[in-house]
Structures are given as structure tokens and as C-alpha cells.
Amino acid sequence: MNYKHININERSCIYQFLTLGMSIRGIAKALHRSPSTISREIKRNSYRAWNNFKEHDRHFPVKAQEEYEDRTTKNVTLAIIEALGKLPSELVKTITFDRGKEFAEYEKFEAALGCKTYFCDPYCAWQKGTNENTNGLLREFYPKGIDLFEVNPEELKKNLNLMNNRPRKCIKYKTPKEELLGNSF
Hints:
Blueprint (H helix, E strand, L loop, with lengths): L7 H12 L4 H8 L3 H10 L1 E6 L2 E6 L1 H10 L2 H13 L8 E4 L8 H8 L2 E4 L9 H13 L11 H12 L11 H6 L4
Parallel strand pairs: 3-4
Antiparallel strand pairs: 1-2
């Protein structure tokens, strides 16, 4: 499979073509891309705006490029080490990643956090079951596509508290909070 990410120039062209009223197929043909690629790009990086009491989709190529560039190895490595570094070392024993390029510096995680890292086989989501289960629980509060940076922090805290106090079969129907802190909370 040969896949090439959309770059900022193509995103700008998509924006201009949309402004001119071109169809998705027309844009795809002009950029020598698949119509599904263009459709996904527009869906992921647009928002609905109300203008003169009519609903319009707005596409933001620069925002899309910034989000893509933010997923670099350096940024992801720093963010994970910062987040997990706050936890006691006995709680961070292993980390299982998908096969994204942003996890290329896995040795730095191991060194900084004193843990082992593993990678899932391609298309084997069940190899990181807790992650997939937690994503499913999160989707009960926030449907796929919602930017969590735009969620009210107090609401997010409340919902995370509900998730952490929900009994789980995999830990003998204890809550994650009970498993982590015992009954001392």
C-alpha cells in the first residue's frame, strides 16, 4: 500500500476549490487524489458555520496542517513522558502502541519511565483491549470527531470521574479507582 499524506499546498487548493464551488470528484481529479481522500479531508477539517441563516461547511487548511504536524514523534514523546511521568513507577510497567510513526522513539519512553514498550500487529486492535474499551466508554460521552480541547474542563473531569468509578469485569468488578488506590479514597 502506498499512502501519501495531504500537504499544506493541497489543503489550500481544496479550500480554494471548495470556495469556487467545485465538487469533491472535481477536486480529486485536479489534485490526482481519490475522491474518498478529499471527502475525508473535508470532513475532518471543517466545521459547520451559520452565515445569513444558512448552514455552510468551512474548511481550514492551516488548522488541519497544524494538527497533522503536532503528531510528530518529538511532540508525542514529550507529551507521553510528561503525562505518565507523574504516576508512581509501579503503575507504569508496560505501554502498548499501535504502529504509528509518532511512536518511533519508544526507547526514550522505556528509559524515562522505566517500562517496557510493545507494538500491536497491524489491524489487531484486540491486542490493546483496555485502550479500545476505554475509547468506547469515552465515546458514550463524546461522539467520534469531537475535539476534546473544546470540551469544558469541568465537564471532562466529571465524565472521567464517572468512567473511573465504573466497575470493570477485567478487574473483578472493582472500579479503576479502587484498583489503583484501594479502598482508601
